[in-house]
Amino acid sequence: MYDINTPIVNDHFDAPATANSRHVAEMFGKSHKAVLSKIKELIYSESSFADEFLPASYTLSSGVFRVTSFNMTKSGFNSLMRISGLYGRKSRATAQEFLDAFEEVRNTPHN
Predict the structure, then answer these.
(1) How far is CA 96 from CA 10, 11, 69, 100, 105, in A?
(2) Residue 19 to residue 64: CA distance in whole angstroms
């Protein structure tokens, strides 16, 4: 079973599995702001990417601020990896962990 701290999420049986941009940034050692910038670059470059990055929000630990994040599908994650400039050996291993987790969630039967 995969273990990348926070699992890939699939809240609904008919919805695609997603990973949150905050978690992706953390796992790759990047700032969330930098990851958001790359996601917005993808969305603005081609409108078809909008379906791969679903806007989300979360409350900071202070309970006061709400900050934008994106839940990305496997396709969105792959697109982000292509333009993000993450090519090191450790980054490839982390990316593979995410891809394996997407596949495991996809192959898990729903009740």
Answers:
(1) 19, 22, 22, 6, 14
(2) 24
**Mean pLDDT per 10-residue segment, the chain (111 residues):** 48 72 86 90 84 79 72 89 69 81 72 48
Strands 19-20, 53-59: pairing is: unpaired
Rounded Cα gap, residues 72 and 87, in angstroms:
20
- The length of the chain is 111
Please give the C-alpha separations between residue 21 and each of 5, 54, 81, 83, 110, in angstroms, as whole numbers: 14, 10, 12, 15, 24
